[in-house]
From TrEMBL:
Record's bilayer topology term: Multi-pass membrane protein
Cellular-component GO terms for this entry: plasma membrane
All copies of domain Type II secretion system protein GspF, residue ranges: 256-388
Source lineage: Bacteria, Bacillati, Bacillota, Clostridia, Eubacteriales
InterPro entries membership: T2SS_GspF_dom (IPR018076)
Name recorded for this polypeptide: Type II secretion system F family protein
Superkingdom to which the source organism belongs: Bacteria
Keyword terms, alphabetized: Cell membrane, Membrane, Transmembrane, Transmembrane helix
Intracellular or extracellular location(s): Cell membrane
Transmembrane segments: 212-228, 370-391
Length: 396
């Protein structure tokens, strides 16, 4: 927005440095007048006088007015149909419009029979004849810019009673009889519904209220949205958990390697890592990997074998690196701990390399996100450099 404002300001300022020599373009027909502001400089005065003038829209010539009236007349024959197939058979209300879009014309209607149709085009069906009723419509077209310019367009329509479908005819008959029965029984406190309509017995039922269905639909939609939100939140939490596990993995492997190299057993080294975490928990906060290690120690104390506990530790973490780590500890317990320290050293080196690669990837992603602000800054710099040069060229 700042860049756009600077560019518009520069363009407006440049426009004030040039004299208007090619005139002012008027608005097209129907677009209305507009106001133009000028600074008028009188010769030898050296002073600019601010003046505001209303510039009217372009007007039609006499031939163009007649052509416009003919065009509007052709449009009217289709515009007033309002869903009817043609003017030769009209069964529903007409749309006697008072104007045509994009045409500077006002329309006034006259009818030769107001007993079958009013000035709005609404039909009085009770007065229609089955074989059709002819009505002549006369439209007085007036040019808005010059009310002395007028034309008349006439058309004849044939009105017929509306053709009802079987279901609509039955519904209309029932409604008419119920309306008539209700009018006869208005002195009674309770309106007793007629038991027969058209000589046939009828039964009445309350129509089902849709409020319950709407409420159920809203409840279902709300439930689906809440489930989707819960699922999305779980996915985000799982993603954050996985990232935290991967960040802590090199540190955990490095500590185990150090303790094993100092002569501790795998279980004792595992316990030592957990104890260090418990002492520093208030400072570091909850770390998912160390929490899973605590669960693993409790499994061992509750009677699970050490190898099984390590494998369960890897499966609970749900990260490939921990699965590999748990399997490595479990297999070396079965085969013997010889060479385990060397394997863990290699795993620690690989873990740190993976962590550096992830850090580089996150840095590249951050750089990509900064591209948009950089482009905006570049645009501002270009405006600062180009606009003064552009203005100086205009002055020369």
């Amino acid at each position: 927005m700042l860049v756009g404002g600077v560019i518009l300001l520069a363009a407006d300022y440049a426009g004030t440095r040039q004299a208007v020599t090619d005139g002012v373009r008027r608005n097209s027909y129907g677009e209305g007048a507009r106001r133009e502001a000028f600074d008028v400089e009188v010769e030898d005065s050296g002073e600019r006088v601010p003046v505001e003038v209303e510039v009217g829209e372009q007007k039609y010539t006499a031939d163009e007015i007649q052509e416009m009236f003919d065009r509007v007349g052709r449009k009217l024959d289709k515009q007033i149909l309002n869903g009817n197939e043609s003017l030769d058979r009209v069964e529903t209300d007409l749309d006697l419009v008072t104007g045509i879009p994009d045409e500077p014309v006002d329309i006034a209607w006259e009818l030769d029979r107001y007993d079958v149709m009013n000035i709005q085009g609404e039909i009085t069906e009770e007065t229609l004849e089955e074989e059709g009723t002819l009505v002549t419509l006369s439209a007085l077209l007036t040019y808005r810019e010059d009310e002395t310019r007028q034309a008349r367009h006439q058309c004849t329509v044939c009105l017929y009673p509306r053709t009802l479908k079987p279901g609509e005819a039955r519904e209309q008959k029932i409604r008419e009889e119920l309306t008539e029965a209700e009018a006869k029984d208005r002195e009674e406190k309770i309106w007793h519904l007629p038991r027969t309509i058209g000589g046939k017995a009828v039964s009445y039922y309350r129509q089902m209220d849709s409020r319950g269905a709407v409420l159920i639909g809203m409840a279902l939609i709300t439930g689906i949205l809440l489930l989707a939100q819960k699922k999305q939140k779980e996915m985000q939490e799982e993603t954050q958990r996985s990232r935290q596990l991967l960040r802590d993995y090199p540190e955990i492997v490095g500590k185990l390697t150090l303790y094993l190299g100092a002569g501790m057993t795998v279980k004792r080294a595992f316990r030592k890592v957990v104890e260090d975490y418990e002492r520093q928990k208030e400072t570091t906060g909850v770390r998912c990997a160390y929490e899973e290690m605590q669960k693993t120690l409790r499994e061992m104390e509750s009677g699970h074998t050490e190898a099984e506990s390590y494998e369960n530790f890897g499966r609970r973490c749900k990260v490939q690196a921990y699965l590999r780590f748990g399997a490595l500890l479990s297999q070396n317990l079965r085969k013997g701990t010889r060479g385990l320290t060397q394997l863990l050293k290699m795993e620690s080196i690989q873990a740190f390399e993976d962590r550096k690669a992830r850090a580089r990837r996150l840095g590249e992603e951050a750089g990509t996100k900064l591209l948009l602000p950089m482009f905006l800054m570049l645009a501002v710099v270009l405006v600062i450099v180009i606009v003064p040069a552009f203005l100086s060229m205009q002055i020369l």
